[in-house]
């Protein structure tokens, strides 16, 4: 069984080789005006341009292509409110195998539609973690499909780390890399990627103050499981995973909190200045940089823009102040 | 005096050399799902990533750097509701000369702010063409500043053509290139760029049906000057210029009309599928391809996405149907 001790940068490098040809090498964008606003040098790794519109494709793709032929033949199953579901559906499609995705009632419409587009079977369940787990387990038992957890799966974590690997390869030395924190797949994969790269890069997680379980867990030294998420960031409501938490502790990841209002203002800035679509969860990274200026001032900062799947019907910009 | 007979691809090539190092070489994006929707192969030239967020920087930059040192020392002046004003302001800044921009009362806020950011002097006038012309002429007389018209200036037209030049260089053979039509700077510059490239590429203009002066002018064989524009596309309300009209006729440019509702649906599609911000005027090109499927079916089509400066406060997506 993989744990935080055995998982390393080698797993990220192996993932990069495995997903090459399936995943996009996404661009890195810069903005003079955002640099000026932050007082730092910002390098935006644009995973909104990744397939399915989110970094999640990296981890799902690595998990699917890590399976033996026998395992793959029985398909894969997961539970996901959105991006991971679409990512696993497409990853399964690239290998020509079946995918089952358990989706809670009320999930973002555009994301559920994407899952179906890629040929997966969607199973709707009650919007509780227990209901999701139970239905995914049941499907696994009935079909033999392999569970690919959205963020605690080691292959998923290693796959997510490939975004940071590309970022470092493209822009060279960085002082820090900021990623959003939900279940912790991206931030812990980033910590793995950075650990063996020969640079001293701090990895920082940006978490909504309305879903501050990772922040609280690090502060107390053990996973806090009773946070009831209250945030507009639909991709960051999950509770930090056990393996993810151990990796964050091992690699000294720090978590910074941001309010939803700061996140929405940051999202607007990215839309207006970089001319790209990012989803709210994704904007936490710029919100963190703008809120905690003392930490980032004068630094070369990589920001992983995690995804661009916005439900436009839900956006009311007239309510969000321009800066 | 330059006219439609003497202006040629050589002027576009000269413009490309002149603006290199100032203007961005913008990326070309593709989308499987938009190809499927259109039944054609679509190549999106992303001028929303151009400096000041619009292709207009190309023409303004070519005009500014075409001036002699003596002319340049007296500065430049223009009237523009937005993107051209910001473009000329930045172009003047790249040469270290003064810029005066006449802006009609009620112009898009974010665009006027951009003009000031680049150090130009903004002069507000009544929102009529006569008032704009008069104020720009007056400033020119008082200061000696050279008028750089948003679309009838030959150097501006040649500069706008450089976007198509880059597009052809990057993607190779195309059957047609579609651009928006307002005053006609981009579409006539594109026609010039294409004319000598050794390929048989049709140039097509997409025009709002609520500002169909170019369409009507081509149909009647002479410029129609009495159209009162009624369209959400704030960049396409100008009347087609004389030189632009002659170039369109000479090079056999066709104009297709689109309704604002089609344009807004197309804008939403680009935001959702390409994950990039484009402004309404810009979305006319995809709207035209989706409305006139018979013309584009099975073709390799270049679409010039002209700009990405959206006033987000004005956008209400809940009113625009998803596709």
Describe it.
The structure is a homodimer of 323-residue chains. Chain A has 323 residues and is of the alpha/beta class. Chain A folds into two domains: 9-53 and 155-319, Rossmann fold (3-Layer(aba) Sandwich), CATH 3.40.50.1100; 57-152, Rossmann fold. The first copy, chain A, has helices spanning 9-19, 32-38, 56-66, 69-73, 83-95, 109-117, 129-143, 154-160, 162-171, 185-195, 213-220, 242-250, 260-274, 280-291, 293-296, and strands at residues 28-29, 41-46, 76-79, 99-104, 121-125, 146-147, 176-180, 202-208, 254-258, 300-305. Chain A has a six-stranded mixed beta sheet, with helices on both faces. Chain A has a four-stranded parallel beta sheet with strand order 5-4-3-6, sandwiched between helices. In chain A, strand 4 (99-104), helix 6 and strand 5 (121-125) form a beta-alpha-beta unit. The interface between A and B is medium-sized, with 24 and 24 residues.
């Amino acid at each position: 069984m993989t744990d935080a001790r055995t998982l390393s940068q080698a797993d990220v490098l192996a993932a990069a080789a495995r997903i090459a040809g399936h995943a996009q090498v996404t661009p890195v964008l810069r903005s003079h005006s955002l640099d000026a606003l932050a007082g730092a040098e910002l390098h935006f790794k644009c995973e909104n341009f990744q397939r399915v519109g989110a970094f999640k494709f990296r981890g799902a793709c690595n998990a699917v292509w890590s399976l033996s032929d026998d395992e793959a033949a029985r398909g894969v199953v997961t539970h996901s409110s959105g991006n991971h579901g679409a990512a696993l559906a497409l990853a399964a499609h690239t290998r020509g195998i079946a995918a089952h995705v358990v989706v809670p009632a009320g999930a973002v419409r555009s994301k559920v539609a994407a899952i179906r587009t890629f040929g997966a079977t969607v199973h709707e369940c009650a919007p509780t973690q227990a209901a999701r787990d139970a239905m995914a387990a049941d499907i696994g038992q009935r079909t033999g499909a392999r569970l690919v957890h959205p963020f605690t799966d080691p292959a998923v974590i290693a796959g997510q780390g490939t975004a940071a690997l590309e970022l470092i390869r493209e822009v060279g030395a960085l002082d820090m890399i900021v990623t959003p924190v939900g279940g912790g797949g991206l931030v812990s994969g980033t910590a793995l990627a950075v650990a063996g790269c020969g640079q001293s890069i701090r990895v920082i997680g940006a978490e909504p103050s309305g879903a501050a379980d990772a922040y609280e867990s690090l502060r107390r030294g053990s996973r806090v499981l009773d946070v009831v998420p209250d945030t507009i960031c639909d991709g960051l409501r999950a509770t930090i995973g056990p393996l993810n938490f151990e990796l964050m502790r091992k690699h000294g990841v720090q978590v910074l909190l941001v309010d939803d209002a700061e996140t929405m203002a940051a999202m607007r800035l990215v839309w207006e200045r970089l001319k790209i679509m990012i989803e709210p969860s994704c904007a936490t990274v710029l919100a963190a940089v703008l809120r905690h200026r003392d930490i980032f001032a004068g630094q070369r900062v990589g920001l992983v823009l995690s995804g661009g799947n916005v439900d436009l019907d839900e956006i009311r910009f007239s309510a969000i102040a321009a800066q």
